[in-house]
């Protein structure tokens, strides 16, 4: 009946019993034994006290049991130790399980026994500074019975336990959290080392365009200290950038969550940069690199290329190159003019299939020799539209990249004039050879006859008439030979 009643109800019921019981005892004593009325009252008082005490104690006992069960069943390690001696006074089941000591072992130990020796002084300082109420004592290292060191976060509260000044502790296991934080810190440090060692300038901004990270290369290029930039708005620190491609490109990357790549001139630093921006969960990660020197080289290469193109286009010689599949890579204007004459196709539409198969086959044979690593020349003869013979010299030179032939450079020159001149020289040489033969054979004989007849001439001798005739004939023969030599010379 009294099991679930409140203490106030029990006291009220006891008062009612006291008022009702006295008249009943008087009436009962009058019938049974008047002289025992006081005894009956004492027995009634004792019974009333026992009943009320039992009724009041049971809820207290139940509450104490519930508290003990709550204390022992809570999954977080809890313990109580003497504030003066550090002796353990009580531990819960979670502490027994986590630390690996039994209840009896715990009660023979001190709070300093579950910590590394170097933390004892800190423990005493914290205990001395404890005030009323729970306080966060911070992170600590604890040691299990097996010697495992792990991290806990301690919450402490001064209390009285069995009339002893004590400290009640809640020890939250944060070992996994600490290890995760350390692993994250190591990875972060590793990443920062990488970012600090790269040659690109790198920085990150949040969604409000505030700097969240700046590497040393960025400091060097921008001539700004990271301490002065972190937390600051990029457009406020570099207002000129809002007028350049940086503003538009970065906002596009942020809004559309896409990566962007572009080149831009930075007038404040008088340099060209190539920039890459990548969206992140918190904002943007941006790399950029000074390409001023590269830009100047590219401009020089472009100008040199233009000059070279002007030079090769200023010649009537045909210049072109092919790749490993014998496809035309490039050619000068004279070459493309010849291609148009042969195929009717332009540079943009020409393919190998557009060439005469026999002509293409001959060129491919030459290309293959050059791809074998040999540079050589050939001379070919062809007929022009009017049937005139045209002589051309073709040069084939391998294009190499690290000892590998990746293409062939070709050069075709019209050598018709030179060839004709050479043939004329050859003909002249032949004529001179004939002249030399005539001189050595035909001229020698008449001359020898004349020289032989002259000494025989005697003015007074009647036979001189015959000698003179022979001299005349030899001279006429010599004259004829000279005429032939003159004719050969004219032909040459």
Account of the protein in words:
By secondary structure, the protein is α+β, with helices and mostly antiparallel strands. It has five domains: 5-70; 74-179, Beta-Lactamase; 198-294, PAS domain (Beta-Lactamase, 2-Layer Sandwich), CATH 3.30.450.20; 316-419, Beta-Lactamase (2-Layer Sandwich); 425-490. Helices cover 50% and strands 24% of the residues. The chain is built from 16 helices and 15 strands. The protein has helices at residues 7-31, 37-73, 93-99, 103-107, 120-128, 175-197, 216-222, 226-229, 234-237, 245-256, 292-313, 333-343, 357-371, 416-440, 444-453, 464-491, and strands at residues 78-82, 88-91, 135-143, 149-161, 164-173, 201-206, 211-214, 260-266, 271-279, 283-290, 318-322, 328-331, 376-383, 389-401, 404-414. A five-stranded antiparallel β-sheet has the order 2-1-5-4-3, sandwiched between helices. It has a five-stranded antiparallel β-sheet with strand order 7-6-10-9-8, sandwiched between helices. It has a five-stranded antiparallel β-sheet with strand order 12-11-15-14-13. β11 (318-322) and β12 form a beta hairpin. The protein is rod-shaped. The mean pLDDT is 84.
β-strand amount:
15-25%
Q: Architecture of the largest domain, according to CATH? A: 2-Layer Sandwich
What spatial order of strands do you see in the largest sheet?
A: 2-1-5-4-3
| Poorly predicted residue ranges | none
Helix content: 40-55%
**Averaged pLDDT:** 84
- Structural class call reads alpha+beta
In the CATH scheme, what's the topology name of the largest domain? Beta-Lactamase
Instruction: Quickly name the level 1 CATH class of the largest domain.
Output: Alpha Beta
How many separate structural domains?
Answer: 5
């Amino acid at each position: 009946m009294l099991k679930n009643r409140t203490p106030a109800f029990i006291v009220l019921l006891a008062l009612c019993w006291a008022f009702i019981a006295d008249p009943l005892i008087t009436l009962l004593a009058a019938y049974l034994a008047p002289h025992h009325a006081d005894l009956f009252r004492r027995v009634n008082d004792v019974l009333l006290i026992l009943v009320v005490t039992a009724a009041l104690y049971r809820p207290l006992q139940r509450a104490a049991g519930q508290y003990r069960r709550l204390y022992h069943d809570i999954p977080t390690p809890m313990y109580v130790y003497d504030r003066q001696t550090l002796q353990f006074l009580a531990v819960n089941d979670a502490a027994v399980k986590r630390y690996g000591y039994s209840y009896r072992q715990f009660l023979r130990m001190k709070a300093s026994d579950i910590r590394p020796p170097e933390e004892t002084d800190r423990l005493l300082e914290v205990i001395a500074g404890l005030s009323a109420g729970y306080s966060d004592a911070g992170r600590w290292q604890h040691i299990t019975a097996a010697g495992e060191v792990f991290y806990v976060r301690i919450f402490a509260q001064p209390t009285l336990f069995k009339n002893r000044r004590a400290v009640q502790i809640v020890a939250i296991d944060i070992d996994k959290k600490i290890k995760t934080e350390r692993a994250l810190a190591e990875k972060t440090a590793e990443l920062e080392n990488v970012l600090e060692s790269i040659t690109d300038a790198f920085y990150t901004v949040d969604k409000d365009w505030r700097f969240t990270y700046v590497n040393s290369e960025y400091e060097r290029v921008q001539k700004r200290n990271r301490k002065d930039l972190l937390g600051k708005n990029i457009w406020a620190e570099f207002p000129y950038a809002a007028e350049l491609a940086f503003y538009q490109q970065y906002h596009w990357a942020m809004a559309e969550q896409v990566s962007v790549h572009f080149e831009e001139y930075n007038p404040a630093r008088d340099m060209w940069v190539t920039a890459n921006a990548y969206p992140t969960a918190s904002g943007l990660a941006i790399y950029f690199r000074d390409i001023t020197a590269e830009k100047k080289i590219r401009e020089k290469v472009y100008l040199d290329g233009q000059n070279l193109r002007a030079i090769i286009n200023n010649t009537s010689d045909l210049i072109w190159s092919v790749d490993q599949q014998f496809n035309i890579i490039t050619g000068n204007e004279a070459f493309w003019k010849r291609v148009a004459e042969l195929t009717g196709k332009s540079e943009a539409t020409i393919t190998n299939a557009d060439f005469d198969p026999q002509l293409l086959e001959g060129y491919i044979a030459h290309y293959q020799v050059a791809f074998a690593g040999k540079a050589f020349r050939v001379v070919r003869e062809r007929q022009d539209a009017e049937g005139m013979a045209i002589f051309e010299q073709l040069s084939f030179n391998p294009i190499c990249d690290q000892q590998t032939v990746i293409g062939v450079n070709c050069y075709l020159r019209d050598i018709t004039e030179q060839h004709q001149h050479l043939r004329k020289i050859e003909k002249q040489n032949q004529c001179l050879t004939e002249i030399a033969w005539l001189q050595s054979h035909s001229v020698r004989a008449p001359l020898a006859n004349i020289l032989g007849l002259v000494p025989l001439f005697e003015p007074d001798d009647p036979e001189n008439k015959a000698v003179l005739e022979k001299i005349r004939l030899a001279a006429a023969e010599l004259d004829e030979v000279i005429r032939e030599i003159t004719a050969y010379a004219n032909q040459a």
